[in-house]
Amino acid sequence: MPHCFDSNGNKIILEDPPIASSGEGKVSKTNCKIKGKRQLAKLYHQNTRTPERIAKLRLLTQNPAADPNAGKGHISFAWPQSLLFDHQKNIVGFLMSEIPGKNLVTICSPKLRQKNKLSIDWLFLHTVALNIASIIEAIHQYRPYQYVLGDIKLENILVNNQALPSIIDVDSFQVSAPRSRKRFHCLVGSEGFTPPELFGKDFKKEIQYPEQDYFRLGVVIYYLLFGEHPFQGIWTGQGEPPDKNQLVRQGFWPYAPQNRRFIQVSKRTIPLTILHPQLEQCFLQCFNDGHDNPSQRPKDEDWVKALEAALGELEQCDQVDSHWYSRRYGDCYWCERARDLKIDIFPEIISFNLLERFLNKKDWKQADLETKVLLLKLTKGQTKSWLNEQSIQSIEVKSLEELDRLWRKASNDHFGFSIQKQIYLQTGNQLDQYNSQNYQKFGEQVGWWDKTTN
Predict the structure, then answer these.
(1) Which residues contact 354 (CB under 8 A, 6 or more apart)?
(2) What is the pTM of this model?
(3) 163: containing domain
């Protein structure tokens, strides 16, 4: 099997095939653990193992930034843990902790959230945004090495089910060596995340500053809270609409000053006004004031304060549990949107897992109670305590079929809606008519009441 060696000379076995590959290298699972954490190996391609890259990698490995979530047992950034060497003792890459989680592409996209059955609401997304801003603040505060993230994008951030994010691709950070004053640049950027002042610049030579990260952070937070890029909408200017990079470069977004407002919101665009005012102001400062003057952009600590304020004023909807909205807005915006557009990007994700556990244990009483809870949830907020004909009609057939399947499977075809239907018809009942005597027979047959009682 392919292998290399860590800084202590230990043999590191690389699993084949790699789990990821890019123009600069490939990432593989390994047989190695450090402090109980499974390690991944990133190996650079031969043509990318430049002296500059190796020197930068040494500096990063020896000087990790303090992890703000270390006390929670969470890894906030996939920092290089150990250099990796080939048989000739040449540095070929590094080890980094394997971090579970979904990337922000999935977390931000309403379609992907529903496809993956992720129970994510606006409260969760605010919390993720706050934690990302806090992590970036911690990296910037590690002053001696003047870290700048540079290539912040959705693919480079993972999130676990506790809303704790982790930043990967740490080796692309810009870092400075305090003694030699040597600066190792961030060599890459991503479409839609590069601030306007860096367009046309040579990243191999350009010094980046935290102000550029503040722009990227603003884009990430906007993606989280609105599910789309801020510089997106209906083009109202002359000619063909510019590409995303040109829109960013010109400062064209739906809430730009009048002289730059060549994009309008669409019907489906979520308005900025649903945010807490402090958070709304951060976006306006970031993309308007900061367009011409990067120093006017909100700092990471400003985003943290605004998000803390916003989280403190989120209200849970009394109709749909998965709806959270800003108290300042008034009513539940997500209910309004679902009613007006027939689109709910925060639908309640209903899981049958608990019912399945009760059924597998043959705990019929608890399974029956859980089925009632699920049926009420499946009415999509039409009722909170009882079922009537109207609320039953609102339940999707596929959900009823799944409930029936689980009951039949666990009871060996003794219980289930379809089984009860058979008994209902066998006892002389009809689906479109009610007969009290036949219904009594049905109730006795399925054990709802004792045959000896009336």
Answers:
(1) 370
(2) 0.82
(3) 100-349
